[in-house]
Write a structure and sequence with these properties.
The protein has helices at about 45-50, 75-85, 100-110, 115-130, 145-155, 175-190, 200-205, and strands at about 1-10, 15-30, 35, 60-65, 65-70, 85-90, 160-165, 195, 210-215, 215-220. The chain has about 220 residues and is an alpha/beta fold. The chain has one domain: 3-Layer(aba) Sandwich (Rossmann fold). The strands form 2 sheets. It has a 6-stranded mixed beta sheet, with helices on both faces. A 4-stranded antiparallel beta sheet has the order 2-1-4-5, covered by helices on one side. Helix 3 (about 100-110) runs parallel beside helix 5. The radius of gyration is 17 Å and the shape is globular. The two termini are about 20 Å apart. The model has no long low-confidence stretch (mean pLDDT about 95).
Length: about 220
């Protein structure tokens, strides 16, 4: 599904280049559940952003479902993202001027799901995450944990082929976190490919592979 070859990410400073990722070579097959771990500043979230096709300023080769992402214009990369990727951001990235229900509807509208079907899917996910009572609220009216639940729900509602999660349980209570990880495991069993960034060894145990980064390098 994913092949990365010699991926590098750097920032230019007055004196020199500062590298965030160095010579990343990685293959992720369909159905994998991969965990990326490492200390703060290791490049974990940067790598996730590249996999999600949100970050375009990198060097190397990236193939996604046989599409050469490194050769595609930004519009085509965005189309791949909208069609195949669900992303749980560490900072939620909910749209402040939309209600919970409207935020959940966004990924479905990108995939041209008919409106009656979208309404049914939103209702199902609201029920599954026990947030039916929050559907007409705006993100600012929710707690951090509630925003995290909505962010996870939005990422999985359209059943994407690839789910990317940056510290997906970071703002949740232990029981909520366990539920979310159990849901990810179920989605993975049903065929979704998952890549998560986490500091939690407990969360990492839900996956089948661990990739460790340090100072931008993959540890052997």
């Amino acid at each position: 599904m994913i092949q990365l070859r010699n991926i590098e990410k750097r920032y230019e400073t007055k004196a020199r280049f500062t590298y965030v990722l160095r010579q990343i070579n990685l293959d992720i097959a369909e159905g994998d559940f991969v965990t990326i771990m490492g200390p703060s500043g290791a490049g974990k979230s940067t790598l996730l952003g590249i996999l999600g096709m949100y970050d375009h300023a990198w060097e190397g080769e990236f193939s996604f479902l046989d599409h050469p992402v490194h050769q595609l214009p930004s519009k085509e990369r965005a189309m791949l993202n909208k069609k195949y990727v669900g992303f749980v951001f560490q900072q939620f990235h909910l749209l402040d001027d939309l209600t919970v229900a409207e935020n959940l509807d966004i990924p479905l509208s990108y995939r041209n799901v008919p409106k009656p079907e979208r309404q049914g899917l939103v209702a199902d996910v609201l029920d599954r995450f026990n947030i039916v009572g929050k559907k007409d609220l705006f993100p600012a009216q929710l707690s951090g944990g509630q925003q995290q639940l909505v962010a996870v729900a939005r990422a999985i509602i359209a059943k994407p082929k690839l789910i990317l999660a940056d510290e997906p349980t970071g703002n949740l209570h232990t029981d909520q976190g366990r539920e979310i990880m159990g849901l990810f495991k179920k989605l993975n069993t049903e065929g979704a490919t998952i890549v998560q960034v986490t500091h939690s060894e407990t969360n990492a145990a839900y996956g089948n592979r661990i990739i460790r980064l340090k100072d931008g390098w993959m540890e052997k």
